[in-house]
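Please, structure for the following, as tokens.
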Amino acid sequence: MTIHTLTQEDILEQEILTKIARGEKVWEYTDMPKEFRDTLIELLLIQESCEYRGGENYLRYCPRLAPTAEEAAFIAHIGIEELDHGARVREILKPLGRQIRRARHLYKEKHILRIFQHPELFISWAHVLMFNFLMDGAAGQQLAEFKQGPYGPWSIMINGIEEEEKGHVEYGTKGIKEWASTIRGHAELQDALDDWWPLTMDVFGAPNTKSSRLARYRKYNFKQIGNDEARLAFYQSVWPLLASICLVVPRPN
């Protein structure tokens, strides 16, 4: 009979899975099993990229499209808040031994989502508002999941930015309602929705059956539902408003 001797890594893995099963948070960055640590770092790097690139987009491309100086200032303020969120994520990454390395070319950045790779889509104020409404809404939904996840410092950080993220979504919600009140504005919003929708759907990851990461995320409770279910939940959250202003909303892919 073969007797399997547990390695230190096996013991750490069992301990952390037991904590997660009990609903306990992990607070120390030491004594993490490698797979858990790598998964945590991977997700934090993705969030940092989202916060940084989102803030960069708001500051670089959006103010010039604003209909008033007041709107330009407000959208720039959102950008500054997003950059600050990125800085907070970087503080969490420091004890984990990871530094941010930006690729010289945007498209070569490893952890960047596709929605941030298309600055050419900022062609109208309607596109700014729709990006704000969809992207910040999708980000808020995912942050709510990560907040329930196992790493305590990340949960606390999310707790500290939730009100600001909520304010971002409220700004986009109010904005698209007002912009849809004219024939031209309504047409621009439909174009913006058609442009941003598939990229927003990508934010939730590959379909469940094709995702190479989902099993790990669910194993450690970083995600409580599958990518397909997250996409559908987001669709159900935004459909009522978009339909109420007579926009044609694509089904989640």
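Residues 31-244 form a domain with the Ferritin fold (CATH 1.20.1260.10). The CA atoms of residues 86 and 129 lie 21 Å apart.
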